[in-house]
Amino acid sequence: MNFVFHDKTISGLLLVVPANEKSFMDEMANFNFPAARSLKLAQVMGYDTHRLVDGQTCVSDLAVLGMEHLFAKDYLKREEVDALLLVTQTPDHLIPPTSSVIQGRLGLKQDMLCMDINQGCAGFVVGLIEAFVLLEQDSIRKVVLINADVLSRKVSPKDRNSYPLVGDAASVTVVERRASGESIHANLKMDGRMREALMIPAGGMRMPSNSETAQMEDAGDSNFRAKDHLRMDGSAVFNFVQTEVPPLIETLLETTGVTKEAIDFYLCHQPNQFMLQKLADKMGIPYAKMPMNVVGKYGNSSGVTIPSAIALNLSSSLKKSSLQVVLAGFGVGLTWASMLLKIGPLDFCETIDLPNKANLP
Amino acid sequence: MNEFCHQIAAILEVESIAEADLFDNIPEWDSLSNLSVIAMIDSTYGVNLTAAQVREAGTPAGLWKLVQALKKS
């Protein structure tokens, strides 16, 4: 499915990461694998450090800190927020929407739209598509897109498949109309038949959480997790990415008549270094044009990884200049989406830390 | 086939592997090796295998047969 938008832009981006940093070397002992193999895994996948919340912190805590920072720095005014889109898979509560929690904690105006979107690794591209759609309305001048997840709270510490790569984070992206004459193109696909490749089995209505779903189980591959935990079929996801993502991006470029070489950066979701290297190899893209360093510094924070890649690698250049980039997100659903756009110069592009136990309501 | 065994041995960081060696009997064999073999076969032979297919193939010889069959189709 193809999308095209006109005269819309990203005007600023803020990344919020927990100050609490953990390292793979320290956590290796939790896994039921020989140390040599775990070290090999870390080397191939690019695992090193990751940022995790201290255990009580919720999505709205990260988001509120980020928003207050923007208000304090005068990057954004409270009354300017016409819509707040929150993309998360780890809401504060089942009811109400966490976007309403954030609106209430910030004291934003009533004359606005708040909406939660349940999306994962494609969540930045999906969120931007929704933001651009809303900006077609005269009454909506600025949309705040918040991507936030605290997935570490739903991953088993004894699951070497998922725990070393996971990270918690939030990003705040301000999206607005700007008469630039530029178009933004996007394409997106979904396949719900593969919905179980990434899932948390328990905790919804199909399988409510109880003492049984909290029991750690032997997954049969030396990993231990409960039904309350995230379960990822890493190999199936790898196959999916290698098969579906290159044609997705190639079709986007063909449709728009832009050559592969004309793209300054390919800003992909950051599952791990291995998957991104294989993706770059398959597409014939130099590694220098595809940042892969997020997983080893902050961890894979699902929908926040593309903003993380931007803030970590491009913040100084994006404050001054404009870059032609391709964004690509792929994961839970399954969902895969890409977007071609010019980004920058941005009004702001920063990273701030959330101190431990800070900002709890 | 010889070259294929070399490629698998390189992934496992072992000196050599024989055609009939069972993956499951090699101490270095794990889910990371499986994934690395899938990636190597994809980039070298243009065949995209699943982890289950690699497990079922069981040995370098079984895997080579599978790659050849899928390459033709």
Widest β-sheet, arrangement of strands of chain A: 6-5-7-8-2-17
Which geometry of chain A do the CA atoms define? Answer: globular
Give me the number of helical elements of chain A.
10
**How is the main sheet of chain A built?**
6 strands, mixed
Short descriptors:
heterodimer; A: about 350 residues; alpha/beta; 5-stranded mixed sheet; 10 helices; 17 strands; about 30% helix; about 25% strand; globular; B: about 70 residues; mainly alpha
Describe the model:
The complex is a heterodimer of chains A (about 350) and B (about 70). With about 350 residues, chain A is of the alpha/beta class. Helices cover about 30% and strands about 25% of the residues of chain A. Chain A has 10 helices and 17 strands. A 6-stranded mixed sheet of chain A has the order 6-5-7-8-2-17, sandwiched between helices. Chain A has a 5-stranded mixed sheet with strand order 1-9-16-15-14, sandwiched between helices. The longest helix of chain A has 23 residues. Chain A is globular, with a radius of gyration of 19 Å. Chain A starts with a strand and ends in a 7-residue tail after the last strand. The model of chain A has no long low-confidence stretch (mean pLDDT about 95). Chain B is mainly α and about 70 residues long. The mean pLDDT of chain B is about 90. The interface between A and B is medium-sized, with 18 and 16 residues.
Write the layout of secondary structure elements.
The complex is a heterodimer of chains A (361) and B (73).
Chain A: E1 2-6, E2 8-18, E3 21-23, H1 24-27, H2 35-45, E4 49-51, H3 59-72, E5 83-87, H4 98-106, E6 113-117, H5 123-134, E7 142-149, E8 169-177, E9 183-190, E10 198-199, E11 217-218, E12 224-225, E13 231-232, H6 234-256, E14 265-268, H7 273-283, H8 294-297, H9 305-313, H10 315-320, E15 323-331, E16 335-343, E17 348-354
Parallel strand pairs in A: 2-17, 5-6, 5-7, 14-15
Antiparallel strand pairs in A: 1-9, 2-8, 3-4, 7-8, 9-16, 10-13, 11-12, 15-16
Chain B: H1 2-12, H2 31-45, H3 51-57, H4 60-72
